[in-house]
């Protein structure tokens, strides 16, 4: 059965460690995808405006499952946006601000927000991932539709904080790891797979026509949902356990390599989960 949808996570998956990719190689692949009726979907925890910036002339043709599924946009048309109630925003904010080792980003539809007390160095790092980012005196003054929370913490504390946050605010939000010490707080059921399902329904596709790539905990639902699921070689063990196949690492253009192999019908992969590409 031919592939009709290719969904890619960005950090640690589609992007290399310099936050870029082989643009000319992808350009050729993308034009072939268009010829063959394959939808290219960017499924990331990152901000919609930041994701668009990576795709130049194609940015308004591509579909985005942004903010871990909280904001879905197809060729500039909004299909879905989460809306965290104000009282939940307040309750969650009060809890996470008690943990001083956590940097908090409140992710809104129009912009992302951080506190003015955030150190300049931290602001600069966050600004790389949020093209629309504002400082505020307190999160209480934010007047925006809130999609999710993004937290950054020391890497070695991630697992402990995930458990703690689940026990403290799990009735409101679901904590998920997006890798490298990052934790997203999303509405229950509002994840990348939900965004993919929305698109699947719109386009009349089934899981056997979909391929997806990821490396972190926030990719697990999406990878479980599609028939051709690829964990990056550099991905977490949890992701590798549930994915059907392993792609080369992000540092070696792993996603682009698999797409080329699909088009060329080459294989097998040289890893512990071997698959002949003629299975497609």
What report would you give on this structure?
This protein is an alpha/beta fold and 280 residues long. The chain has two domains: 5-81 and 190-279, 3-Layer(aba) Sandwich (Rossmann fold); 86-186, 2-Layer Sandwich (Hypothetical Protein, Haloacid Dehalogenase-like Hydrolase, Chain: A, domain 2). 32% of the residues lie in helices and 24% in strands. It has ten helices and 14 strands. The chain has helices at residues 10-14, 23-35, 48-52, 86-96, 120-127, 158-169, 192-203, 220-225, 237-242, 254-264, and strands spanning 5-8, 39-43, 63-66, 71-74, 77-81, 103-108, 112-115, 133-136, 146-152, 174-179, 182-186, 210-214, 228-232, 245-247. The chain is globular and about 55 Å long. It starts with a strand and ends in a 16-residue tail after the last helix. Residues 266-280 have low confidence and may be disordered.
Q: Short summary of the structure?
A:
With 280 residues, this protein is an alpha/beta fold.
**Shape from CA axes?**
globular
Spatial order of the strands in the main sheet? 5-4-3-2-1-12-13-14
Distance between the termini: 6 Å
- Structural class determined from secondary elements: alpha/beta
Along the chain, the helix and strand elements come as EHHEHEEEHEEHEEHEEHEHEHEH
- How many individual helices? 10
| CATH architecture call of the largest domain | 3-Layer(aba) Sandwich
Q: Which spans have pLDDT < 50 for at least 5 consecutive residues?
A: 266-280
CATH homologous superfamily of the largest domain - what is it?
HAD superfamily/HAD-like
| Largest sheet, strands/sense/barrel | 8 strands, mixed
